[in-house]
Predict the 3D structure of the following.
Amino acid sequence: MRRLGAGLVGHARRLLVGTELSVDDALAVAAGEVSNPGIAASALRDGWAAAEQAGVGGRSK
Amino acid sequence: MSAEWFELGQRLHAATSGRLVPRLRHAPLLAGAKPVAVRATEQGGVVRVSAAAPGGQPGSGQGLDGLALLAGLGVSLDEPEPATLVTDDPGTLRTLLGLARTVAVGCAADAVAGHIAWWADRADFPGGGAVADVVAGCRARWISGQAPKAEYGAALWRDRLGVGDASVAGVLDVYAQATAGDPLRFLSDLATDDSFSYDMARKAHCDGWDWRRPDQTSRAACGLRGRCDAADLYAAALLSDPLWRARSVHAGSVVVGRIAVDAPATQRVVPVACARLDARLRAGAEVLWWLGAPGEVPDADYTGTVGAGAVVGGQLVLDVKTPFNRPTLKAGDLVTLMPAPPSVHRQHHGQMVYRKLQYSRRSWLTSGTAPAVRRRSVPLDVLLAGASDD
């Protein structure tokens, strides 16, 4: 797994203020390695899952 | 709203995988029939233009020579078809417009200047095909593993898309990738509007109308109406994309829920228990809905209207007025709702009415008088909801 760039780490840190998640936590939660019931964790997982499924065909409205 | 966290999840995936992550499944830019890549810079009062067309060598010129270069690439109101300005530099159009303003009315370069003015006019129509900012297009289509600020640079996208040519010709290579594949729904409708607008600009040029003069109020009003319609249509175009819909669940504009009680086909109002409280669909909102998840679209979808909403037992329940042609719904069925797209036909009709008002002496648009205010009663629950701090 590649390391995150300093710019992205700073960006993620700002977005995670108030969520009690560190950037490393966010990465682990998004990848599904750690479970977390919070709203932020749920959104991170959904975003990660959407990225994984993005190559799979889908239909449009 | 958790859309920013959703996007962070995508961004972290892109960073760890080292690949671009699609933000959309469809192209957010329509491939123009006549793209012309342009970069323009100003230094010491001298404007330098570099430009290239597909398959040709890039050229450059200063001042009026730069405009002659563009004319040679088909950028002129004398041409029956418009050229698409393709650029990766946000300052290019402003610089070109400044150069166009220096051209005297009626001189040889006036048709080129008029075409640049048309670009400037159309640039703020969302989803329009007259001007393509490839950096904005790439940002709309993909997420990189970098911080968002880094995505404003063209070099990042050239690198990620494997475009080695940093000259103006390379802009066309980035454009080709940003426009590849099926475009978003409604982009062709927006392109039709571009074509109509170009024909109007050509006619105005032939009639000797000077684009340098400020718009009359009536003309500005028509332009504002057109821009608002384009913005509504582009918002609907984005929601037509399954990946954007997945994100929009976290922004509240797409709502996922379950049918709260069994509803036979004859029952008009169907309660939907939403999965989240932050739905942005309000009472009276026209919606498009279907059985299934946001990304799984069955053949049948239905229109409806949100009747009322209430929080019951900590869960938002929306009453949706449904049409008669819907199937029987069972309690627990998964349902997705999103704002109904605007009617393109209705938009065209509305703009046509505005254009007629523009040329009618007695209309409120040309007489300068404010139209009569029409008021309507507002339901008490809407007033209470607006006044509430919750």
